[in-house]
Write a structure and sequence with these properties.
Mean pLDDT: 96
Helix content: 25-40%
Strand content: 25-35%
Distance between the termini: 40 Å
Low-confidence stretches: none
Largest sheet: 9 strands, mixed
Number of domains: 1
Shape: globular
Bound molecules: uracil
CATH topology: Rossmann fold
Order of helices and strands: EHHEEEHEEEEEHEHEEEH
């Protein structure tokens, strides 16, 4: 299977990522920079979605138009995934949005699902799983497993920053899901934070730092 990783190489992504990484960036500017990157990510991650032709009527004549072949579903993992989601829906306003909530079981250290809600046509959808920080890969892999258990088959994974360890772990369990990321960083520290990273993405986005 493919185990594909697409690292975006774009000057605006690089500059906005630098804003996100800086420790003194406040949540207003953090949000703006994250939404900018999300919109560029949409461009990359939707590039190969299939379209079908439809007949449309302009004010002048009939012509050929296009629409997406399948419904599109965005699924952020709570809470930090909501930050990237907000940028995605600025462009993909027709997409349905599902949610996955995970917590870490303190005994087993495994992620457990406490909430999930998907649209009924998930199995027919192109699905984009959204989780900004691919650190150990445990929660992302569980999120993807929840999607598959609910019937999703066409899944892509949008990640802001990925650690090599996280990519490896994720692809051990889901080699079929391509990972799109703005950066592959150096690795994880002892607390499983991504280095150089940006700290806690949820705290920084929601101003709870
Ligand atoms: N989650 C975060 O928000 N940041 C990290 O560096 C790792 C996991």
């Amino acid at each position: 299977m493919s185990r594909s990783v697409i690292e975006m190489d774009h000057p605006i992504v690089r500059t906005r990522l630098s804003v996100l990484r800086q420790a003194d960036t406040d949540s207003l500017h953090f949000r703006q920079a994250l939404h900018d990157i999300a919109k560029l990510m949409v461009h990359e991650i939707t590039r190969e979605l299939e379209t079908e032709t439809i007949e449309i009527q302009t004010p002048l004549c009939q012509t050929v138009g296009y629409r997406l072949k399948r419904p599109l579903t965005l699924v952020p993992i709570l809470r930090a995934g909501v930050g990237l989601l907000n940028g995605f829906t600025e462009i993909l306003s027709e997409a349905a949005v599902g949610y996955i909530g995970l917590y870490r079981d303190e005994e087993t250290l495994e992620p457990q699902c406490y909430y999930s809600k998907f649209p009924p046509n998930l199995a027919d959808s192109d699905v984009i799983l959204i989780d900004p920080m691919l650190a150990t890969g445990n929660s992302s892999a569980e999120g993807a497993a929840q999607l598959k258990a609910a019937g999703a088959t066409r899944i892509k994974f949008a990640v802001l920053i990925a650690a090599p360890e996280g990519i490896a772990h994720f692809h051990e369990q889901h080699p079929d899901i391509p990972v799109y990321t703005a950066s592959i960083d150096e690795g994880l520290n002892e607390q499983s934070y991504i280095v150089p990273g940006l700290g806690d993405a949820g705290d920084r986005y929601f101003g709870t730092v």
